[in-house]
Amino acid sequence: MDADSPVFAIAVAAELAGMHPQTLRQYDRIGLVVPGRTRGGSRRYSMRDIEQLREVAQLSSEGMSLPAIARLLDLEDEVRMLRRRVNELEGALRAERENRPGVRVFAAGASGQVVTLPSGRRIRRSTEVVLWHPRHAAVDAPQAAAADAPDA
User: Fold this and answer.
1) How many whole angstroms separate alpha carbon 148 and alpha carbon 130?
2) Closest CA to 32 of 61, 60, 3, 1
3) Residue 52: enclosing H or E segment and its boundaries?
């Protein structure tokens, strides 16, 4: 069972959150804490819902309005979703880096074909054009300037 599994009936959730069941119904109606539903329409609360109910109670006791609390909960959900997405993208980037041998440079040959150049190979600028070269501008700028300098 994870934190998002809707397992608690309204009476149990109200007891765990320290609230009256009618308060949970009101929060559901106004969209503040919306539980899952069974096929029959009964509310089922997850541990995350109960944590949100406790947070709502705390914020409300400190004087925060229900619309402000609703906005805060929406922002927390968005942050949670964005963190999940960042983790997914970091994993995909890590996998891509592990599956790719070194840095690749692509160039267009004299007849227009795209060619992959080995790392470290210089191209003849009169006959080939670099299409893409992955560089970090701030880190590689001094190296790039030295590479582009005319040979002496």
Assistant:
1) 12
2) 60
3) helix 47-61
DSSP 8-state class, residue 102 = S
Domain ranges for the chain, please list them: 10-97, 105-148
**Which 3 state secondary structure label does DSSP give 67?**
helix
Report the alpha-carbon distance of residue 47 to residue 6 in Å, rounded.
8
Q: What are the residues whose beta carbons fall under 8 Å from the beta carbon of 11, sequence distance 6 or more? A: 21
Which 8-state DSSP code applies to residue 126? T
Spatial distance between the Cα atoms of 21 and 104, rounded to a whole number of angstroms: 62
- Which CATH topology does 10-97 take? Multidrug-efflux Transporter Regulator; Chain: A; Domain 2 (1.10.1660)
Per-residue pLDDT of the chain (152 residues; tens, 9 = 90+): 788 898 999 999 999 999 999 999 999 999 999 999 999 999 999 999 999 999 999 999 999 999 999 999 899 889 999 999 999 999 998 888 777 766 566 677 777 777 776 666 666 665 555 555 555 444 444 554 455 555 54
